[in-house]
Amino acid sequence: MTTYRIAVIPGDGIGKEVVPAGLEALHATADRFGITLDCDEFGFASADYWQRHGTMMPADWEQTLRGYDAIFFGAVGWPDVVPDHVSLWGSLLQMRRTFDQYVNLRPCRLMPGVRSPLAGRGPGDIDFVVVRENTEGEYSSVGGRVFEGTDRETVLQETVMTRIGVDRVLRYAFEHAERRPARHLTSATKSNGISISMPYWDERVAAMGQRFPGVHVDKLHIDALAAQFVLHPDRFDVVVASNLFGDILSDLGPACAGTLGIAPSANINPEREHPSLFEPVHGSAPDIAGQGIANPVGQIWCASMMLDHLGHPDAGAHLLGAIEDVLAAGPGEAPLTPDLHGKGTTVELGRAIADRVRERT
Ligand code: NAI
Ligand code: MG
Fold first, then answer.
1. Torsion over CA of 309, 312, 315 and 316, rounded to 10 degrees?
2. From what superkingdom does this record's organism come (predicted)?
3. Could you tell me if the ipTM is greater than 0.90?
4. CA–CA gap between residue 339 and residue 240 (Å, rounded)
5. Among the atoms of ligand 1, which is closest to the Cα of residue 14?
6. What residues have a C-beta under 5 A from ligand 2, the ion?
7. How far apart are CA 177 and CA 190, in angstroms?
8. Which ligand ends up closest to the CA of 245?
9. Under a CB-based contact definition with an 8 Å cutoff, are residues 231 and 222 in contact?
C-alpha cells in the first residue's frame, strides 16, 4: 500500500488553529478509506521563525520539502512582526515558483447553510471551479522605468505568454472539465481590447478544444464574465483564465459563494514532479487569532482537494460530503463558528466534521 508523505506548515495566526482541525478531518477520512499518511510538521514560513532566524525559511527548505507528495499549508503573515511582502515573498511565493505549481485551483460552491451575498441563490446554484494560470501572463518582471522624474517618465510592464505555459494550464482545465458532469469550459478573454496576447490565448483555447471534443467551450470577455459571476453564477462549470484575470475571478467567485472562512485553494504541479500545495484562501486573521473561533472549513476542504490530488477522489468527495452535512445542520444543531452565525469553536466544528466522516455512509 502507498504511503503519502505530507509536509504540514501551519504558519501564523489562525493557520496554527485551523491546521490541526484540518488534520483531524484528514486523518479520519484517511482511516476510513485505508489511506496511509505520514505527516511531518514544520515551523518555518512563520513570523516566529523569522524572529528567531531573520529569514522566513531555512536555506535548505527546497530539499526538505521536495520529497513530499503534498504540502498542507495554513496561512502566513503577521504584519506587526514582518512586513507582508517579506513574509509572502520569503515563503509561499517561493514554493509556488520553485515547485512549478502552475495551476491555481479554486472551487466556488454555495454550501447548504451558507448565505450567498447574491439575492435568491441557494445550494446548487453556484458550483464551479476557477483554474488560474499561476506562473506567467500579466505578472511578469519584464519591463522598467525610463526618464524617471521627467515629463517623459515612461513605465512598461509586459505580459508574457508562452505556448508551453498557456497550453499546459489549458490542458489541465480541459481535463478537469472532462471529468465533471457538465463538461463545460469557459475561457476568460479580452481579445477586443488586448489585441496581441489575448487573441493568442483564444487561439490556444481553440486548438486545445479540438483535442477535447466532449467538452463544450465558450469564451467571455473578462468584464462581462465578472458581471455574469454575479448575475448568473449557475452558468459556470470550469472557468480558465490568465494570471491576472484568474486572480480577480478567484476572489470574486468564492465571495459570491459566501464566507471567506470556507474557501479552499490548491496550487498544483499536475505532472507531480514537485509537491502541490493546499491552502485556504484566507490569511492569518490577526483580528481573531488566539480566540479559537476561526472557521476551519476552508482548511478541511483543502484536505478534501489534497485527497483528490493524491488519487483518492472517493475519499475527497466523502470528506466534502461530511462538510456539507455539518453546514446543512445549521447553527442550531452543529457547532458552527461565529462567521456562520453559530457559537462553536474551531476545535468543535473540526471535530463535528471528523465525526461525520466516520458516521456517514
Ligand atoms: P485574512 O484573510 O487573514 O482576514 C480577513 C478577514 O476575514 C478578517 O476579519 C478575518 O477575521 C476574517 N477571516 C479570515 N479567515 C477566517 C476564518 N477562517 N474564520 C473566520 N473569519 C476569518 O486577511 P488579512 O486580514 O488581509 O490578512 C492578514 C494576514 O494574512 C496578512 O499578514 C496577510 O498578508 C496574510 N495573508 C496570507 C495569505 C496566505 O497565507 N495565502 C492570504 C491572505 C492574507
Ligand atoms: Mg487574490
1. 20
2. Bacteria
3. yes
4. 30
5. 18
6. 247, 251
7. 22
8. 2
9. no
Minimal CA–CA distance to 176: which of 248, 257, 234, 239?
Answer: 239
N- to C-terminal Cα separation, the chain: 24
Res 3 pLDDT > 90:
yes
User: What domains appear along the chain, each with residue ranges and CATH number?
Assistant: 1-101+268-361 (3.40.718.10), 127-256 (3.40.718.10)
CA of 182 to the centre of ligand 2 (A): 27
Q: At what angle do helices 15-32 and 313-333 cross, to 10 degrees?
A: 120
Looking at per-residue pLDDT, the higher value among 277 and 258 belongs to: 277
pLDDT the model gives residue 300: 98
Which range among 17-31, 67-81, 244-258 shows the weakest confidence by mean pLDDT? 244-258
Atom of ligand 1 nearest to the CA of 77: 32
Comparison of pLDDT for 141 and 359, the residue scoring more: 359
State in Å: Cα 249 to ligand 2 middle: 8
